[in-house]
Amino acid sequence: MDLEDTLLMMPGPVPVAPRVLRAMSRPMINHRGKEFSAMFDDCTTMLKEIFQTENDLFTISGSGTASMEAALGCTIDKDDKVVTIENGKFGERFKDIAARYGQVVPVECEWGTSVDLDVVEEKLSEGAKAVTMVHNETSAGIRNPAPEVGKIAKKYDALFIMDGVTSIGGDDVKVDDWGVDIAVVGSQKCIAAPPGLSMLSVSERAFEAMNKENLPYYLDLKAYQKSAAKSQTPYTPAVPLFFGLQEALKIVMEEGMDARIKRQATGAAAVRAAMDAMGIEMFPQLNATSAYSSTVSAMKAPEGVDSNDIKKGMMDKGIIIAGGQNRLSGKIFRIGSMGNVAPKDLMMTIQHLELVFK
Ligand code: PLP
């Protein structure tokens, strides 16, 4: 397969702009020098704007899961209760990570169905140190009610730890307004940088809650905070990925977040309209507080069709879409509209999909 002719239409990693690739081929620099610190500060400033936060913000050399683990590993001790909301694979991942550090109080919804906020409130009212939720559940193509969960968390004085891995940079995410104590994003999704970095914002309240005896070592957020005061990372960062991140963030800023949010949302709406016209059902089951994701669309495979065959049919045409993960394998297929995906890419994907179905 000629990779130059392959179009990535899956929910991350997404295509990376040529200028981002060029930025990554720059000669190496001293990660304790002024040049790195200037790049570090530039990235942090742009990221805070995208997160809509004044909280501390750190970049970890490690994928999104590293930051999910940093969030829980630093705040949760073995006797602490964590309410984990799950309606897809990444909600389940938060639950699995939480189980390594503390006591899980699961709120398990069938994957692809909407979160029941009354159940969340009931569990939090019984007392918990934190609640975790995935804002945009990539595995199911559903957007979960982050502002509402933020309010409930505040009411019961619990930390709100939010996975924004496929919403931040593509959706209107208001970390401070929603009261998100720790918000996580991955570089390879809506921001359209290469995979390998994750970024997270951390509130003062979250820092105050880090009263554990043993914080993780590599993922010790207090160490990141201390180093950030010197515009550095505690350990050697993935410098070429920082070069790429900085360039990718400049592209985000040039487009502007409002335009970017609109473009990604209209992309997802175009996918839904095309599916409707083809008689293909969307996978998520919405209620008044959930929505279709505007960065990844998840569809049910038609009766009697294995979604892996749809994926394969598209791959033969040079277009990479995603199937279902874990228990959803063979049942659903997913198309990303995140990152710098252009209308022509979506149109081509829709047209080829129609050909695969015929
Ligand atoms: N959370 C969500 C919502 C995701 O979509 C993903 C990856 O697809 C992750 C977490 C895990 O991120 P990573 O694979 O970068 O560790």
Automatic annotation (TrEMBL):
Pfam families: Aminotran_5. Belongs to the class-V pyridoxal-phosphate-dependent aminotransferase family. Keywords: Aminotransferase, Pyridoxal phosphate, Transferase. This is Aspartate aminotransferase-like enzyme. Its cofactor is pyridoxal 5'-phosphate. GO terms for molecular function: alanine-glyoxylate transaminase activity; L-serine-pyruvate transaminase activity. One of its GO terms (biological process) is glycine biosynthetic process, by transamination of glyoxylate. Residues 28-326 form the Aminotransferase class V domain. It comes from Methanococcoides alaskense. The keyword Transferase applies.
